[in-house]
Predict the 3D structure of the following.
Amino acid sequence: MTTHDADPAGHDTALTGHDTNGTDAGTPPAGHGCADGGPYRVVPPQIDLPQMEHEILRLWAEAATFERSLDRPGAPTWTFYEGPPTANGVPGTHHIEARSFKDVFPRFKTMQGYRVPRKAGWDCHGLPVEIAVEKELGFNGKADIERYGIAEFNAQCRASVSRYVDMWTQLTN
């Protein structure tokens, strides 16, 4: 059984980060502490989580957090081979779940000191893309594609894939 002492101000030391003798076990950056001097910000009862997420992403972009995580001369490299998504449709809930799981392991290895480069890719194999474009164009098979023109049909397939890449990139970030 674990017990937690209270510091002289009556704070539970497990929650405040203060030692039992009242000394600060870790001073938070300016503007990030509680009114009583503790290290945590007061969380309002009504919080806008999407706004908070955008603020954190903006902070990470401004600080080049991801880029700095790759600047580890001499660190061992850890590689994670991910099966990329098929980029011929809007990301769905099941994609978000899979991306979350696939993101946990590279982040964990980064926190352990590894250099973990990431390279996004798209599964642009033909059949799902071709079927989607055939439906868009109202085609019913090979003869319709040949009448339309193979080169033109292939161009439509490339455009179809490109249409969704921005959504997938946003999901990845």
